[in-house]
Predict the 3D structure of the following.
Amino acid sequence: MLIARVIGTTVSTIKDEKLHGKKLLIVRQTDEFGEAVGKPYVAVDTVDAGVGDLVLTCAGSSARQTTQTKDTPVDAVIMSVIDSLEVDGKVVFRKS
Amino acid sequence: MLIARVIGTTVSTIKDEKLHGKKLLIVRQTDEFGEAVGKPYVAVDTVDAGVGDLVLTCAGSSARQTTQTKDTPVDAVIMSVIDSLEVDGKVVFRKS
Amino acid sequence: MLIARVIGTTVSTIKDEKLHGKKLLIVRQTDEFGEAVGKPYVAVDTVDAGVGDLVLTCAGSSARQTTQTKDTPVDAVIMSVIDSLEVDGKVVFRKS
Amino acid sequence: MLIARVIGTTVSTIKDEKLHGKKLLIVRQTDEFGEAVGKPYVAVDTVDAGVGDLVLTCAGSSARQTTQTKDTPVDAVIMSVIDSLEVDGKVVFRKS
Amino acid sequence: MLIARVIGTTVSTIKDEKLHGKKLLIVRQTDEFGEAVGKPYVAVDTVDAGVGDLVLTCAGSSARQTTQTKDTPVDAVIMSVIDSLEVDGKVVFRKS
């Protein structure tokens, strides 16, 4: 899984029928301190995450292992909102 | 999923029989503002996208979860045309 | 899928029994104009491609969706020979 | 599989129900000598690994092939703690 | 598939039960001439390869398509030892 920050939202009218009602958020991978690195990607939100939240995303066929994404053409899912990260014994991120 | 722009088309006579009748478009990943980054790849179009459109593509086994791509040797599918992107509360892309 | 050019061949005597009789070609990803970029990889040829051909390759579990690669330990397949590529309305590659 | 070092832990209250009770560790890929390289990622621990341990992680659908991760939305698993690494005939890492 | 050179071995006591008896080798991807490039990764050996051998590795779910790796939490397998590589009509590598 990747640690990622939610940075935005996408709106689409024309889409596969299995995507109707799904919330597709724009996220960017972060390092272990919550700082964004790398290119943005889009993930289905299954945990009511919001812009600014630090989340975990799961990719590939594993992204279809939630009840909301089963048999759906999606390759990334947000399946957790991060409360805190601890690195080498120190808390380096805590959700405000 | 990746945000991508459709930049072209491919034509092939010799191909796997399951690819007959499929439209294979050349796309390039973009950043969250719709600017192309990275190398081109090819995706099956399932939503009648056209050159210039900003789309969402889905990769891997998830690309076979549409009715048009089931059991087909394809690893990327266009399953949505993007209307608009919003980042940090501002609309940064709107389809013209 | 990736646009790739066939650059060579591999020969192996010791291999998984499911690979017997398979042609394993060395390819390199190209950009949308057919110019090679990136590292080489090896793909099973299912369309009688030859060195110099521009082809499409499909990766991951999708590479096992052809009749020749079903249930086989291969993660990349050549399933199309490219005739032409068109970018932004111009033909940028045509097979000679 | 990747050689990786465990560098931290994640805490989440809001998460997919299948993740309850799972330990999600932050790891970083290392080179063959155990030196960290690249960005951090998060893997489910199935072997009671701890911060500082050098481990093997397995990605993608293969990460769901342990009894603890079956049918779970996770794409990386720690399924081995490394005792030692030998490169070109020399022991280059030994667990202390 | 990737062309890779076997550079070492891993030893683990604590591991998933399905990994018992499996030989896990450290490999590095090579270019088409057999020169190592990129970071090391670990693959299950199914063809009795040894340190120094040039091999083919297969990744992802396809790595579980050999009799030795079926249903096992591994995402890379060595399923061929390379005898020779030919690029643009010239033999560029031959096993000694």
Observations:
- Chain B touches chain E at residues 61 (CB under 8 Å).
